[in-house]
Amino acid sequence: MSTMTASPAAAPSPSQPPRENYLNASYGIRSWLFTTDHKRIALLYLISITSFFALGGVFALLIRLQLLTPEGWLVGPDTYNRLFTMHGIVMIFFFLIPAIPGVLGNFLIPLMIGAKDLAFPRLNLLSWYVFNIGALFTFYAILTGGIDTGWTFYTPYSSIYSNSQVAAAVIGIFITGFTSILTGLNFIVTIHTMRAPGMTWWRLPIFVWAHYATSIIMVLGTPVLAITLVLVAGERLLHLGFFDPRLGGDPLLFQHLFWFYSHPAVYIMILPAMGVTTEIVATFARKNLFGYKFVAAASLAIAVIGFLVWAHHMFVAGLSIYAAMAFSMLSYLVAIPSAVKVFNWTATLYRGSVSWQTPMLYALGFIGLFVMGGMTGLFLASLGADVHVHDTYFVVAHFHYIMVGGAVMGYLGGLHFWWPKISGRMYPEGLSRAAAIILFVGFNLTFFPQFVLGYLGMPRRYASYPPEFQVLNVLSTAGASILGLGYILPIIYFVWSMRYGKVAGSNPWPATGLEWQTSSPPPTENFETTPVVTWEAYDFEHRPDLVLPKPERAQPEKLEAPGLDGRD
Amino acid sequence: MERTGALLGQFRDLDQQRETVALGMWVFLLTEIMFFGGMFLTYTIYRMKFPHAFAEGSRELDVVKGGWNTAVLIASSFTMALAVRAAQMRKRKLLCILLASTMILGGVFLGVKYFEYAQKFEHHLVPGPNFHLNVPDAAQVQIFFSLYFAMTGMHALHMIIGEGMLLALLIYSWKGKYTGGYFAPIENGGLYWHFVDIVWIFLFPLLYLVDLHR
Amino acid sequence: MSESKEQHVIPFRTYALIFAALLALTFVTYHVALVDLGPWNIVVAIVIACTKAVLVVLFFMHAAYAPRRTRLVILAGIFWMLLLLGLTLTDYLTRPPATDSISFNNAPVAAYVR
Q1: Residue A492 burial by CB count (10 A; 0-12/13-18/19+): exposed, middle or buried?
Q2: What is the pLDDT of residue C38?
Q3: pLDDT at A568 over 90
Q4: ipTM of the complex
């Protein structure tokens, strides 16, 4: 059995990955489709997530192509409505919400807390199946005509008047919602009850805190979306009356119910990325995280305050002005814990020993772009300004800065940071840095013009626009093509690295954190012996040689020498 | 991950397993509170808007059946709580009798519900094109009945799932699985059943007792 | 934190008393509903329902004997549902009276009957 003695001073890289690990512990498709190993399930999620991202990206491409000319040359308005609806649905429900928790959270949380697996491994597998079953319903909806209501499904259009596949789509999203609920439940319970001895709450990596906060949102918010979709489906299929104005129903009630979930949902999308960024910043500044407890508390604060602001999506919808004022003030409040995190990352970088590997490029990109997206959110929180920019490209740019510039960069940064742990291999650094820079450039070229467009008055969800907006739209589409290239590169070199990448060793960066104390890739049971934690998180200064207590053995451990029959 | 007896492979010992599984069920019930909560919000808003229509709709419901069902469901919670106690005291036959009683009482509830629904169909009180009621605000009464069917229907669905769960517990209990010292599934099944009871405890006054005095 | 109730067997009498109390409260809630208390009818009904729920949670669901963490979960659930209700009501309760029929304070509902 291979060993995992690690030290932050670069450990010599073995020439082969350890012989028996979770990837080769068993073979055949059934060992993957019926696995309960959280690491394998994470890879199953990776495959689904990547596919759905590609699909959402195709819709994005079509949207940007359409908007190359003012009169809209590619598709008619009805089809365009379907394109942006499906882009939103696929990207939000089938990519952004499940991505980091499903792939990185699943893989890392048991490792980071020193457990053998999540609390409910079979429930974890069920979550993945539910995810894909929900996707099937939604794809059925897409393939049989699509949906044209916008991803927000506003009533009574969605529940009564739309002639599109609303019912199938809401049923699909309803089913997929259970992925969130069950994953969140699994994470909360795991973090409470499965921590290794010595792993106290205040020693947990911020990645774990971030996922705990995310799971709270998942568990409390998603059920409200679920029941809302049930009511819409009921109105559509069974002629029940909930939002029908002809009966006295209030369409705004739907919006309250919908946004009660969908606003906290955006924090589901961003909190895990913040957790990733924290891990990367501490590692590549080689410094203890500044203000650990504040960062942990800020994660929880974002989760809680995030539930108090939803009606800022409804300022021009007919909300009472007094309620609007209250929600506006609360929306300013929610920016504070996010700012706390940004300050703490900055303070961590200050006087750190900063290196510029690919994960750090993504983390720095995250911080900059998230700040821009977040600050433009404050414009939207202001009642007066929101009246001007609501339903314009300003909003579109705002949330893409956070979702793409923030969440997607966080996801990619995390994939790069933990790729050695997941696969046992390194990706090619030169190419990965180039991809990161291409993404950053492409992203800004795509979305910065949209701030200007929105401010100048170009409405969102329109298939055509006044000719004076064309230059900015063309810039945006050009940026989108660069962005697309940036996304394709990692797929190529990650797959390449699984066979040809340099063997990584257990702690290539090196980083603190329990996951780096076991081999890359880890064995199925994660650790040879249950770790006993006696050090604080990110303790670069005081523990230069982070060593796990060695298991009782007759012989000293040795790394596998080259020359033995190489098994990947 | 292998299991040894009742102990699943990811856990250190039965204590951790029991603690974990119980927390899991409580967190699940938390999600259920929010799920039903959305419908309670809808009910609150529309009752505030249309108090008269809600009173009229409520008048069409059979209070006797509703009250009887409430008592039946409370009794089933009683037998379920006793079942947990029986498992704790390692009394296999008593456990099985109590689980079966819970199932039967739940079945009675569902049976009465079926008759109530059938009555609604006959009296044209199902929302949709066949809805008909001779009152000026019939349209809003439709909203009441939409909520009635959505809330009691969702509740009934949860009860049916609960019956399935009870059946599984009954079968395993008969085989002696839960009278050997580890009975967490009975406890957690009980938690689910009591929650379903609590939802009905709120549904009964909100749906059946609106302006009953008129 | 291990389960304290493994050692603690709740006596049959306790369960029976709670059961009797629940039935009694059901009886009460029905009869109070027959009396016209104006706006207090709904208040009394909710208070009685909450009391019944508390009894079920504390004794049938053993929350009284459960670790602190369980009670945190229960309180979080109640709090969050109240948040959903309360914050939404800040909109509905502060809408101005209007001439269209959507708002509460006036307008004949008959305008919306088909």
Answers
A1: exposed
A2: 86
A3: no
A4: 0.95
Q: Say if residues B128 and B171 touch (Cβ distance below 8 Å).
A: no
Distance CA A474, CA A70 (A): 10
Q: Is any Cβ of chain B less than 8 angstroms from the Cβ of A421? A: no
- Residue numbers of the domain that contains B181: 37-208
Q: Kindly state the average pLDDT of the residues A288-310.
A: 96
- Taking the domains of chain A in order of start, what are their residue ranges? 29-517
Q: How many CA atoms lie within 13 A of A567 on its CB side?
A: 9
B interface with A, Cβ–Cβ below 8 Å: 1, 9-10, 12, 16, 19-20, 23-24, 27-28, 30-32, 34-39, 41-42, 45-46, 49-50, 53, 127-129, 139-140, 142-143, 146-147, 149-150, 154
Nearest to A147 by CA among A171, A131, A163: A163
- Please say if the pLDDT value at position A555 is more than 90: no
Of residues A444, A450, A423, A431, the one with CA closest to residue A488: A431
> Which residues from chain B sit within 8 angstroms of residue A117, using beta carbons?
1, 9-10
Q: Mind telling me how many Å the CA of B154 is from chain A's nearest CA?
A: 10
Name the helix (H) or strand (E) containing A108: helix A106-113
Q: What is the per-residue pLDDT for A450?
A: 97
Distance CA B24, CA A185 (A): 7
Task: Find the CB nearest A247 among C69, C83, C112.
Answer: C112
Please give the residue range of the domain that contains residue C93. 67-114
Would you say A435 and A490 are in contact if contact means Cβ atoms under 8 Å apart? yes
Helix (H, G, I), strand (E, B) or coil at A564: strand
Using the Cβ of A368 and the Cβ atoms of chain B, whether some distance falls under 8 Å is answered with no
Q: Which of A31-35, A397-401, B9-13, C28-32 has the lowest mean pLDDT?
A: B9-13
pLDDT higher than threshold 70 for residue A283: yes
Q: Which residue of B has its CA nearest to A219?
A: B31
Q: pLDDT of B31-72, one tens digit each?
A: 999 999 999 999 999 999 999 999 999 999 999 999 999 999
* Cβ–Cβ contact C88 with A under 8 A: yes
Residue pLDDT, tens place only, B85-99: 999 999 999 999 999
**3-state SS assignment for residue A459:** strand
C36 and C85 part of one domain: no
Residue A48 CA to residue A53 CA, distance in Å, equals 9
Paired sense of beta strands B3-4 and B7-8, if any: antiparallel
pLDDT at residue A101, as a whole number? 98
Give me the DSSP letters along A256-302: HHHHHHHHHHHHHHHHHHHHHHHHHHHHHTTSPPTTHHHHHHHHHHH
Please report which residue ranges of B50-124 form alpha helices under DSSP H.
51-59, 63-88, 92-122
- Tell me the per-residue pLDDT of A79-99, one tens digit each, with 9 for 90 and over: 999 999 999 999 999 999 999
The predicted pLDDT at position C108 comes to 43
Task: Report the alpha-carbon distance of residue A158 to residue A163 in Å, rounded.
Answer: 9
pLDDT value of residue A559? 53
Q: Does domain A29-517 have CATH number 1.20.210.10?
A: yes
Task: Supply the CATH number for residue B133's domain.
Answer: 1.20.120.80
> Tokens 């969702």 identify what position?
B154
What is d(CA B38, CA C81) in angstroms, rounded to the nearest whole number?
8
Alpha carbon of B141 to those of A272, A409, A511: distances in Å? 45, 51, 64
Give the Cα separation of A433 and A357 in Å (integer): 7
Characterise A75 by phi-psi region: left (phi > 0), alpha (psi -120 to 50), beta (else): beta
Q: How many domains does chain C have?
A: 2
Q: Which residues of B touch C13 (CB under 8 A)?
A: none
Closest-CA distance of chain A to residue B40, Å? 11
In a domain, residue B25? The reply is no
Look at residue B213 and tell me if it is in a domain. no
Average pLDDT, chain A: 92
How many structural domains are present in chain B?
A: 1
Residue A563: pLDDT band (50, 70, 90) is very low
pLDDT per residue over A237-252, tens digit each? Answer: 999 999 999 999 999 9
